[in-house]
Design a protein that fits this description.
Layout lengths: L4 E5 L2 H19 L4 E2 L1 H4 L6 H10 L1 E8 L21 H12 L2 E6 L24 E2 L5 H17 L4 H18 L3 H7 L8 H30 L3 H14 L4 H16 L9 H4 L1 H10 L5 H21 L7 H10 L4 H14 L5 H14 L4 H15 L2 H17 L5 H14 L8 H5 L4 H12 L7 H17 L3 H15 L6 H15 L6
Parallel strand pairs: 1-2, 1-3, 3-4, 4-5
Helix pairs in contact: 1-5, 3-4, 8-9, 8-10, 9-10, 10-12, 10-13, 12-13, 13-14, 13-15, 14-15, 15-16, 15-17, 16-17, 17-18, 21-22, 22-23, 22-24, 23-24
């Protein structure tokens, strides 16, 4: 027996990515000539059916890669493809079963084994075969176990000498090496199959590769931290080239791609579509095989890519569908919920937009994950909306951030401060009374100091505005004497004949306080 090849059967619409990774793993183990997968093995211009039959004739084991859609993929007329007698996957499995070839179902994407009743009668034997599961998170280890299981079928033995040497020469060899047994046991680790030195060499090579990958991961981690996204991705490409099954390298690739997508910028003459080609390729490759929260993260960022393409002017798609797919995969996903809230405000055209967006921002903020991203999206959306309701909502957001101990960026503080500035003149829709009443006065005083105390510290005009609003809130909180004293001090600084929005606002506030003296609460 000289061994045989392994045939990988799969549906491109179902599990092409997993089949490709499995092929790469088995090729490294057994050699390219021992692994058949149609896309790599069939030469251009050859007859597909003839080549498939030829490959199956020399096959020792058929691996049937089954994902979540394997059984339900349909033809254009809506019929299940597995029920079509001309279906290649059906033909591959049926031929292997007829020839008595070992058939092993390989379950990926969390798929379950089809029952005999779900399969065409000629494929019913597949349902009784012992399946092997490969999880995305443990792909390398699971694929290694599968390779070990089929190795005797693939590698076989190579000559009549190997078939006969053990039973014929066992006694002779025992006598010849008796004096060396102790020394050999000391020098060579005991392994199965008499491959101790080979196994040692394999282990050393594997450890050397792992050290290389670990070193590259440390470099990429530093580059990621410094926001050198292109450099980090190039470093990780090198790590994956050394070990295509490195889960850590691929996970970091996805993390880099997502942050790169969120923080992407464009130069003059460049489009977002051009700028995001590299990170988008990583997300496209990873999302179909992810599950749970990771799937939610990746789909949300694919939705963000669609949003950026709309900013380029490409309006063939909107991101909402992908955001909602992400939420279906992970209902509390902070990226998906915050990005959907952002989209609803960005795309909204009526007064209900904020009410529709607010619950999604609430879910995102309450997760406590990626809080900086969530708040950046929320405050940016409120700023872009430009309505009075959104301006006041931003102050409520800052108050919540203070109470939760979340950090506030100086740029966000500056943006929200503009609301206080434009309310001074009480012109238009934004009026000071509404602004002062947006929060309970005691809480508002705390938030005012927390958010804007440093921002207004060194600028005379801003500092005076800050003192004015502090006085207004003190008055609202019942601290009338403090408020009146603060307002009179400001008025004295302006002088009697000073004009402008702030001096006028101070004078109006003093008149209101004077008229309220003696008034019953």
């Amino acid at each position: 027996m000289t061994g045989g090849s392994v045939f990988i059967s799969y549906r491109r619409e179902d599990a092409a990515g997993e089949a490709g990774r499995l092929s790469d793993h088995l090729t490294r183990r057994f050699g390219r000539h021992r692994v058949f997968i149609d896309i790599d093995t069939i030469a251009p211009g050859t007859d597909f059916i003839v080549e498939l039959d030829k490959a199956l004739s020399g096959t020792a084991v058929v691996l049937v890669v089954i994902g979540r859609k394997w059984l339900t993929v349909t033809n254009p007329d809506g019929s299940r493809r597995i029920d079509d007698g001309a279906d290649f996957v059906r033909r591959e499995i049926h031929t292997a079963v007829q020839r008595g070839t070992r058939v092993i179902p390989v379950l990926v994407q969390g798929a379950v084994m089809p029952s005999a009743s779900e399969l065409p009668p000629e494929l019913a034997p597949l349902a009784t075969r012992q399946a092997s599961a490969i999880q995305h998170e443990e792909f390398s280890a699971d694929a290694q176990r599968l390779a070990d299981a089929i190795a005797p079928l693939i590698e076989g033995t190579t000559s009549w000498w190997r078939r006969w040497q053990k039973p014929v020469l066992a006694g002779m060899l025992a006598v010849m090496v008796l004096g060396l047994v102790g020394w050999r046991l000391y020098r060579v680790p005991t392994t199965t199959g008499g491959r101790g030195t080979v196994q040692e060499g394999d282990d050393e090579a594997r450890q050397a590769r792992q050290r290389q990958v670990d070193d590259l991961l440390r470099v990429a981690g530093g580059q990621h931290q410094r926001r050198q996204f292109a450099e980090a991705m190039a470093t990780l490409d090198r790590a994956v080239a050394i070990d295509a099954d490195s889960v850590n390298a691929k996970t970091l690739q996805e993390d880099v791609a997502m942050q790169w997508m969120r923080e992407i910028g464009i130069s003059d003459g460049q489009t977002f579509a051009d700028a995001m080609k590299v990170p988008l390729a990583v997300l496209d490759r990873a999302a179909p095989f992810a599950t749970g929260a990771r799937r939610g993260d990746l789909l949300a960022h694919l939705g963000w890519a669609t949003f950026l393409r709309r900013r380029d002017g490409d309006r063939r798609e909107d991101p909402e569908g992908l955001y909602r797919q992400a939420i279906a995969a992970d209902p509390t996903n902070p990226f998906a919920n915050a990005m959907l809230g952002h989209w609803l405000l960005w795309n909204g055209s009526d007064s209900t937009s904020l009410e529709r967006a607010r619950p999604f921002f609430r879910v995102a903020a309450d997760t406590g994950r990626a809080t900086d991203v969530v708040r950046n999206l929320e405050l940016s959306a409120l700023k872009n909306d430009r309505t009075v309701a959104s301006r006041l909502e931003a102050i409520r957001v800052l108050d919540e951030m203070r109470r939760r101990g979340e950090p506030l960026r100086a740029s966000d503080a500056s943006d929200v401060w503009s609301t206080y500035y434009f309310a001074l003149g009480d012109h238009g829709d934004l009026r000071t009374p509404a602004l002062v009443a947006v929060l309970p006065p005691t809480e508002h005083l705390l938030t005012l100091q927390w958010a804007f105390g440093n921002l207004t510290q060194d600028e005379g005009a801003k500092r005076q505005q800050f003192r004015y609003y502090t006085a207004r809130l003190q008055a609202a909180a019942g601290r009338t004497a403090e408020a009146r004293e603060a307002l009179r001090t400001l008025q004295a600084e302006f002088g009697r004949n000073s004009g402008g929005s702030l001096p006028d606002a101070v004078s109006q506030a003093l008149r209101e306080l004077s008229s309220s003296v003696g008034r019953r609460p």
